[in-house]
Here is the input.
Amino acid sequence: MTAAIHPFDTLMDITARPPVVFVRGQGSWLWDDSGRRYLDFVQGWAVNSLGHSPAVIADALAVQAKDLLTPSPAFYNAPSLKLAQLLVANSGFDQVFFANSGAEANEGAIKLARKFGTLHRDGAYEIITFTGAFHGRTLATMSACGKKAFEPLFEPKVPGFPKATLNDLASVERLIGDNTVAVMLEPIQGEAGVWPATDAFLRDLRGLTKARGLLLIFDEIQTGIGRTGHLFHHQGAGVTPDIMTLGKGIGGGVPLAALLATREASCFAHGDQGGTFNGNPLMCAAGAAIVEQVRQPAFLKTVRDNGQHLASELQRISARHGLGEVRGQGLLLALDLKRPIGAAIVAQALDEGLLLNAPQPDALRFMPALNVTREEIAEMIASLDSILRRSGAARCVN
Ligand SMILES: *Cc1c(COP(=O)(O)O)cnc(C)c1O
Here is the structure.
């Protein structure tokens, strides 16, 4: 007999996972297989818009699962039409293509821009992206990323993604040439540590791309669906791109993403784009339930109010412990730690039943459920405060 393989070892070891198995979630809370409870301020990386297992998602999935799972993307289905109409009616875009992950939606955006270049710009194909950017883990989207750690990986990369500097219009202008077809960015760089593009920069970029006949692509996979207090971040900034991608929060916990485009930019021909599960009724039913709720003005106002409250509580903590700035908007916030203690704090928090995320060694990111309560914010702040107090004490001893 061969030795038993540990269940953990049957999964490819693609990241350092803590030895915890989650079995249940409700709202801002998760339970592991020993019955231990955790307060979750990660929410699957800003995925669970209404927290864990909300009734609207469970019901939408249960009803749809009994009606129709998938007829093939070569046919129309009612939930995908419903969700597409909701997205079009609540945005400045005319058409939608559904995908199963953010990377796949971005891959679609890259293809759409290249198609636009073929049709209207003499074959121009370059898409200017930004240092620090994160757009996904397919080969093309990794090439579009401006993440240092990706640079040596999986060479040769897909060519055609020169990198500019966020909030520096001249750095974009310098890269524009005959081969340029688009500029693509996250309105707030999430994985890089929550670094916002200023509204002025987004407006200037809109002006520049329009003047030069280029497409402007917003990756709103992390900022969209209410995360920053508006249904889409660009609506708050008052800037409308030609193409937008959504992911993460749009499914409220199930795999769903979307590529949206204006009529002028929506130029795929038959055969250019597709995918077996794209726009399947099951996921689109969940997406429609989420968008129906998140688009309500009163819901978005609560996100803005709770975001301001969380930011001011984090500022208080920062002042008390001599930490840095609080960045971000709505319920996508980061606390600058000014030193590389992020991983240690995340580990300590897990020990105490709190899930936090450190996207960079010197920053914590907060992306709770959009319907997080003031009590849950208070509990997280108290826990973080006590962790920081003890880590400060440990520093003095050393
Ligand atoms: C998470 C993320 C992606 C990738 O989405 P996946 O669903 O993981 O493929 C792309 N862009 C941004 C801004 C993201 O936050």
Summary: The mean pLDDT is 97. Residues 101-103, 106, 134-136, 186, 190-191, 219, 221-222, 247-248 surround pyridoxal-5'-phosphate (CB under 6 Å).
